[in-house]
Write a structure and sequence with these properties.
By secondary structure, the protein is of the alpha/beta class. The radius of gyration is 22 Å and the shape is globular. Strands 3-2-1-4-11-10-5-6-9-7-8 form an 11-stranded mixed beta sheet, with helices on both faces. Helices cover 53% and strands 15% of the residues. The protein folds into 2 domains: 145 residues, 3-Layer(aba) Sandwich (Isopropylmalate Dehydrogenase); 211 residues, Isopropylmalate Dehydrogenase (3-Layer(aba) Sandwich).
C-alpha cells in the first residue's frame, strides 16, 4: 500500500511525523509519501538513509495551522499539505491519507476532494477505543454537531461495517448513547433514532449510558458529534488524571517506590492499553476513499500506529465495505425514514413555537 502522510500537520510536526514514518517502515510493508515543504523534510529524512527507497516527498508550500478556521484556510490556501494529501488519494497515487493536523481541515479536505459515498448524507469520524476486555467503535466522534435521525442511523450502519471488518465481529452489537436505557429516554433526536434502529436489520441492543461505553456491553456506540467528542475527551482526561495521580502516590513514600518495582510490568501494560498513541487515529467514514485523522499531539509512536491502521484500512478496502452497508440504510430511509424525519421536524417546530411564546410572555411579565 502507498500511504500519503501530511508531514506538516500536528503539534510536533514535522519532526515527529518523519520519525513516525521511519518507525512504520520497519514494521509495515508499505511505501510512504511525505507531503510538505521539501526544504524542511529532506534534511530530516536524510538522517534515515536506510528508508530512502520507500519514502518520497511531495512538495507543498502552505500549511493549515491548528488554530485556523478550516473552511477559510482551505478556501484561501490552495497548496496546503493537508489538501495535497487527499489529492494523492483522489489521483490514485496513494491508497490512503493520514494527517495529525487540523482535524476540521482534514474532514473538509476529505469531503471536498474525495466526495461522499452514494447515499451518505454526512460523513462522520469513527474512533476505536479500548474497553475492559476488547475494543469498541464510537461514532460520530466530532464531525457533526447537529444531526437528524437518519444521520445517526447511517452512522450505525457505517459503525457496523467498521466493527465487522476491523474487529472481526460478524454481528456487532449496536448501542445508542442516551441518558437512560429505557426506550423513552433521551432527547427528540435519540427517541426518533431509536425507532428507526428498531426497524433495521442491525443487531440493535437499545439505549446505553455513558458508563456502558467501556464495559463491553456493545461493539458500536452511536451518537452525534457533539456528544461523542465530549465523551471521548472526558475519557481521555480521566485516564490522564489517573496516571498523574498514580505517579504522585508512587513518589510520595518509600513504600510506593518499592511497590512500583513489582508493579511496573502491569502498569506498563495498562498504559499501553489506554494510551491513544497505541490506537493511531480515527477513520473518516462516508468519504469515497480512506482518510485517517491522528491526534494533534501525536508523537512518533502515534504517527507510526496511524500509518499502520491506514495501511490496514487500505488492505481491507474499508470504503467499499462501508458503501455496501450504507445501501441498507438508504433502503431503511425510503421505507421509514421520511415519515420519522417529518415527525421529528414537526416536534422541533412545535417546541420552537412554545419557546417563542414563553419568551414573549416573560418579556411582558405574564
Amino acid at each position: 500500500m502507498k500511504i500519503a502522510v501530511d508531514a506538516m500537520g500536528g503539534d510536533y510536526a514535522p519532526h515527529a511525523v518523519v520519525e513516525g514514518a521511519v518507525l512504520a517502515l520497519r514494521k509495515i510493508d508499505c511505501t510512504i509519501i511525505l507531503v510538505g515543504d521539501r526544504e524542511v523534510l529532506e534534511p530530516l529524512l536524510a538522517r534515515h538513509s536506510h528508508a530512502a527507497d520507500r519514502v518520497s516527498i511531495k512538495h507543498t508550500s502552505e500549511v493549515v495551522r491548528m488554530d485556523e478556521s478550516p473552511r477559510k484556510a482551505l478556501n484561501v490556501k490552495q497548496d496546503t499539505s493537508i489538501r495535497k494529501t487527499f489529492d494523492l488519494v483522489k489521483s490514485g497515487e496513494a491508497d490512503a491519507a493520514m494527517s495529525a493536523g487540523n482535524s476540521g481541515a482534514a474532514m473538509l479536505a476529505g469531503l471536498h476532494v474525495l466526495g461522499t459515498l452514494p447515499h451518505v448524507d454526512r460523513p462522520c469520524i469513527g474512533s476505536i477505543l479500548p474497553t475492559t476486555n476488547g475494543r469498541v467503535v464510537m461514532l460520530d466522534a466530532g464531525a457533526n454537531v447537529d444531526c437528524r435521525p437518519h444521520n445517526l442511523v447511517q452512522f450505525a450502519f457505517m459503525g457496523h461495517a467498521l466493527a465487522k471488518y476491523t474487529l472481526g465481529i460478524q454481528s456487532p452489537r449496536i448501542g445508542l448513547l442516551s441518558i437512560g436505557e429505557e426506550a423513552g429516554k433521551g432527547n427528540d433526536l435519540v427517541r426518533a433514532t431509536y425507532k428507526l434502529l428498531r426497524k433495521s436489520d442491525l443487531n440493535f441492543q437499545g439505549n446505553i449510558e455513558g458508563r456502558d461505553i467501556f464495559a463491553d456491553n456493545v461493539d458500536v456506540v452511536v451518537c452525534d458529534g457533539f456528544v461523542g467528542n465530549v465523551a471521548l475527551k472526558t475519557a481521555e482526561g480521566v485516564v490522564q488524571a489517573l496516571g498523574t495521580r498514580l505517579k504522585d502516590e508512587i513518589r510520595s513514600s518509600i513504600f510506593g517506590r518499592f511497590g512500583y518495582l513489582f508493579m511496573r510490568p502491569a502498569l506498563k501494560r495498562f498504559k499501553q492499553r489506554f494510551d491513544y498513541a497505541e490506537y493511531g487515529g480515527a477513520l473518516l467514514l462516508g468519504i469515497d476513499g480512506i482518510g485517517v485523522i491522528a491526534h494533534g499531539r501525536s508523537n512518533p509512536v502515534a504517527i507510526m500506529n496511524a500509518i499502520r491502521i491506514s495501511d490496514e484500512y487500505a488492505r481491507i478496502r474499508i470504503a467499499q465495505r462501508v458503501k455496501e452497508e450504507v445501501e441498507s440504510s438508504a433502503e431503511l430511509k425510503q421505507s421509514f425514514g421520511d415519515k420519522v424525519h417529518q415527525v421529528f421536524e414537526h416536534i422541533k417546530e412545535k417546541k420552537f413555537e412554545m419557546d417563542t411564546k414563553e419568551s414573549t410572555a416573560s418579556e411582558k411579565g405574564d
